[in-house]
Every structure is written in structure tokens, then in C-alpha cells.
Amino acid sequence: MSVPKARSVGVILAAGEARRSGYLGGILPKTLIPVAGRPLVWYCLKSLARLGSSEVIVAGRADGGILRRYLDSLDPRSVGLKRVVLHEFVVPTKSPISTLDQAIASNDEPVAVALGDDFTVSPDLETFRNQFVRSSMDVAQAVVVDRDPAAIRRACELSVNTSRQIVSIREKPRVATSRLRGCGLYLFKPGAYRAIRRSMRRDFGRLSMSDIVAVAVESGRAMGYRIRGVNVNMNTIDDVLRAWRSVRGTGRL
Questions:
Q1: pTM of the predicted model, to two decimals?
Q2: What is the pLDDT averaged over residues 114-135?
Q3: Per DSSP, which regions of 55-197 are E strands?
Q4: Domain 9-250 sits in which CATH superfamily?
């Protein structure tokens, strides 16, 4: 698949097996689980548009055409995009990194990445992108303050200094020592993802996006930007209900 030329490329990583989504995962692709009347993928597309993407590649599982039919019916302009492309995987991928490797054929533009189970409604995404573009960092991750240690243990924990530089990142820590939880939204400067990917000498089929960020942390070139609003890592029915309640409570879409 050739990647469409664009000012900025967005990628939604949604080619995993969705084992923790309960009965909904057996009925719908996780990206189509509804929240406040819209499927999860709509929120991911909206987030990537606000992060500067004009075209988005949805890297999803081959599911009998359900996701394709939804995307074909969607007017990209309704979410602030010029074009949405579906890249279907017949076999579920083992890690976000392997999905991203296959979804993007080149990396000459800035890249924005959203995990397919990330639900974010925030007024800060444009500012996040602008701050990153002006910085000397290679990679950035959105973070939120989360007072629930269990939620942090299910995701990733970060420590960020006053200059917004990530000083440590831990995927699914046994004990949470920070109140900062990573969101499934990432930004890469042109060429940064490929450079970091080449520097790693591990099994990419087993790595998470946190491992990519960790390499940039080691070189002091990773930014963690706190966003306000709602962020839910959508893995269980309880997460879906939490996202519904959050949107209804804020009234923001």
C-alpha cells in the first residue's frame, strides 16, 4: 500500500485482537464500539485531525467489511480531514509497533499516532501539537493526571519534568508511583519513528508504543504533554460506560 502524500500523516492502530472488550468485542470491532452516539474510531479521527493530520490511515482487522462500510460512509471533512484510508490486516498483529511498521511505507512527514482503543476529548490537542513542533524533541506522548492507581497499572506511568521532558516511562507498572498516565496519542518528528525503530534490537512483535518512547527518553528527546478533558483506555465494558458518563458530564464532543 502506498501512503498518500500529505502535510502530516495520521495512523490509527486497531489491528489487534481486542480480547478484553467483553461481549462487544465479539459483535463489533473495538473501533466501532459506540460512545455517545458515535463510534470510537470517530473520536480517534477527530483527535488526529486536531494533532495536525490531514490524511489518516486506519490500520484495522479484516472484519467482513463492517469497518470499511462505516469509513466509506463517513465524510472526512466532518472530522476535519481530507482523506481516510483503511489498511486491513487479515491476521491480527501482535504489537502496535508491528502494525505501525506495516501501515506506513515511508516517514518523510510528521506522524501522529492514535491507539485504536484511545478515547480522548480534550481542548488541548492543538496546543500539544504546536508546543511539540516548536520543541527540540523527537517524540511526544499526551499524558493525563490520573488519581486511580489501578488505571495507571493497566496503562503506562510517566514522570515528566518542568520542561515537559519525559524522564521515565513504565508500561503496566506493578506499583504506580506517579499520577501521570500515558494516553494513546503520539507525535513523531519527520524521520524520528524510523530512526528510533532502527536503533532497537529487540523482538518487535512483542513491543508496545511505550518501548519506542523509552528509546527517545534515554536520549533525552521525548516530550510528555499534560492534556485536560476526558481520556479513557477502552478495554472493558466498564471503560465504555465511563467514557459515556464522561462525555455526558462534560457535554463536549
A1: 0.90
A2: 95
A3: 55-61, 83-89, 111-115, 118-121, 139-145, 156-160, 166-171, 180-188
A4: Spore Coat Polysaccharide Biosynthesis Protein SpsA; Chain A (3.90.550.10)
